[in-house]
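Researcher: Next sequence.
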Amino acid sequence: MNMIKRTLAATLLACGLVGAVQAQSAEATIRKNLAERIPQLTKVDEITRSPMPGVWEVRMGSEIFYTDALGNYLIQGQMIDTKAKRNLTEERVEKLMALDFDKLPLKDAFTVVRGNGKRVMAVFQDPNCGYCKRFERDTQKLDNVTIHMFLYPILGGDSPEKSRNIWCAKDKARTWADWMLRDQLPPEANCDAGALARNVEFGRRYKVNGTPTTIFANGTRVPGAITVAQVEKYLADAK
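Model: Next structure:
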């Protein structure tokens, strides 16, 4: 019996090694062929087997493509698990874009608390962003939430100036709301506004490419002005 077990273990180990070698060979082939045929794909970050047999995932940053084992065909689109009714591509991208909430530099944000403040989220916003203004109006309906607001002046124009005036105001949250909800320009103010440059640097490092971008307590990152109903769902999922 022991001999059978040892033989079986050796066979499984050999199969695993063969599989690993085959995977490395396929990855090298895919990487070589795609780089030669599509120069834009020379900076591939990762090539791994997808859940679909014979199909490989090609990742560039948070962009996902699919290909065969020779890199002869390239697919850009969604992979759906029809049995489990799951969008595998969407789940993969969400995982790649997740940002550890505990690593957010909260000292460089100001905080708005509504109700008991038990639910937590962070938002990167530019004062000149129209979608941010819509998002700000909609999120006024949220209750029992703490919102860490990161001023993120990336849209040019006087975004840095407005952001500085808001950051340096005595009541940051009030000055922000006056501008975003009531179009009252933030009065001139000066202080150490190094937080704004640090926010931009942080956002670039973690690929926060647009505003608003919301981060929930479980690390889920959601770009764009989503609806209050969607925010409520993400808050519930983040518990």
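Model: The CA atoms of residues 99 and 219 lie 5 Å apart. Residues 10-19 have pLDDT under 50 and may be disordered.
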